[in-house]
Amino acid sequence: MPGFSGAFIWNGMGANDPEKNASERNVQLIASRFAGGGLSHVSMDEGSETAEFWDSIGGQGDYSKVKESLGFAPGFEPRLFNVSNSSGYMWMQECPAFAQEDLINDDCYILDAFNIIYIWIGNQSNKFEQKGVVKRAEKYLNEICDSRDKEMVIFEEVPAGREPPGFTV
User: Does an H or E element contain 133, and which?
Assistant: First the structure.
């Protein structure tokens, strides 16, 4: 591939299929709009990078592996759940495509980060939500069916404004 003048799609260890598909679609979109459809591309997974790839970004160096160091399973996507009693009874609802800005201080949340389940306590949440969110997190772990060793999962309460790095990844 000497003199390669296209695009590289790099799939990190934790990349899932929807992310990989989105990367492919984005490269195709860019190629159709800016390269007259003639932009070639090469996909590669983390650990199988070519010399041309590393040369194109200025050489191989260290890069962040925060998810892996925090115990995320490869391909695992964190899940966020809103827990509230604003309607008069305690409920739990998953928040799709979430960002930290989605957290509402009046409620509590559960963030499933595989080996850690964070219990986020909003500054203005009430005592019923604060007690209920812990019970909901325990029930959630007991009912989830995946490859994790449930005995090794840690519950960590997180007050709003004091989120650890693993919570914000």
Answer: helix 127-143
Return the domain boundaries, the chain: 7-63, 70-168
How far is Cα 77 from Cα 37, in angstroms, rounded to an integer? Answer: 32
Tell me the mean pLDDT in the region 11-34: 76
Cβ–Cβ under 8 Å, residues 23 and 17: no
Q: Indicate the burial class of 84 (C-beta count within 10 angstroms; 0-12, 13-18, 19 or more).
A: buried
C-alpha distances out from residue 13 to 46, 50, 53, 61, 101, Å: 6, 16, 16, 16, 26
CA angle 95, 100, 106 (to 5 degrees): 75
Indicate the CATH number for domain 70-168. 3.40.20.10
Q: Quick: pLDDT tens for 119-168.
A: 999 999 999 999 999 999 999 999 998 888 889 899 999 999 888 776 76
- Whole-angstrom Cα distance, residue 112 to residue 69? 16
The span from the CA of 133 to the CA of 26, in Å, is: 39
The position carrying tokens 């490269």 is: 27
What is the full DSSP assignment across 34-102?
HSTT---EEEEETT---HHHHHHTTS------HHHHTTPPTT---EEEEEE-TTSS-EEEE-SS--GGG
pTM: 0.59
